[in-house]
Design a protein that fits this description.
InterPro entries: GntR_C (IPR011711), TF_FadR/GntR_C (IPR008920), Tscrpt_reg_HTH_GntR (IPR000524), WH-like_DNA-bd_sf (IPR036388), WH_DNA-bd_sf (IPR036390). The protein is mainly alpha-helical. Helices cover 69% and strands 3% of the residues.
Length: 234
């Protein structure tokens, strides 16, 4: 195994510094000069480490103001997922299908937990989004991706798990970018609306098994199409 470079070692130590000082997004970090003194290292290595950490949102460099803890968002994760999937899809491999399977596993594994108790206000949001899908289907002949995305994010809001929301949203972002390069065949909007209404009904009834069945049915159509596409020789 190759030994880490000086810059990579500094990356690790900056992360440890953030943890040791219990810093959060937006909190100031030591200046470049202070980091050089703290780690007994040169300016080039410190700058290289900061740039690498900035690329993954661990730090934010504000010219003229200093260096701060970054947003720690999963945007780089989503970018990586999307790029990997697009490359695989372009080589005739099932990039989009792989993303879909992972997202399906996450959502079917979580939706039963949601039914334990969704607040009335969250149910109202879900019903409103399902109604919006009906309106879009009638006017445009399709359900907007943004509405579908908002529904699935709202579905898990009651779990109050910020990381989960970011992970699911990262998968949506990655899938949207891959979809732009492939034709996965749009599902009948009437079917899409009916499936989302069934998910809401199952959640409102606090029926975990029914909710899992509804979620799995929601994924059946696109999964079947993608599996068929993956089976066709290129």
């Amino acid at each position: 195994m190759a030994r880490p470079t000086m810059a990579q070692d500094i990356e690790r130590r900056i992360k440890e510094l953030i943890l040791d000082r219990a810093l959060g997004p937006g909190d100031p970090l030591p200046t470049e000069t202070e980091l050089m003194e703290l780690f007994s290292s040169g300016r080039v290595s410190v700058r290289e480490a900061l740039k690498a950490l900035q690329a993954v949102n661990v730090v934010e460099i504000r010219r003229g103001f200093g260096t701060f803890v970054g947003s720690l968002s999963l945007t780089p994760f989503a970018e990586g997922l999307a790029f990997r999937a697009v490359v695989r899809q372009g080589r005739g491999e099932p990039g989009l299908l792989e993303l879909m399977r992972v997202r399906e596993a996450l959502e079917t594994g979580l939706v039963g937990t949601v039914t334990a108790g969704v607040p009335a206000e969250d149910l109202a949001v879900l019903r409103a989004l399902a109604a919006a899908m009906e309106t879009e289907a009638a006017r445009e002949g399709r359900v907007a991706r943004a509405t579908d995305r908002a529904f699935h994010l709202a579905l898990y809001a009651s779990l109050e798990n910020h990381l989960l929301s970011e992970v699911l949203d990262a998968f949506w972002t990655a899938m949207d970018r891959v979809r732009a390069s492939v034709d996965d065949g749009r599902q009948d909007p009437a079917v899409t609306c009916a499936q989302h209404h069934e998910i809401v009904a199952a959640v409102a009834a606090r029926d975990g098994a029914r909710a899992v069945r509804a979620m799995r049915a929601h994924f059946d159509g696109i999964r079947s199409r993608l599996e068929s596409a993956a089976a066709v020789p290129t």
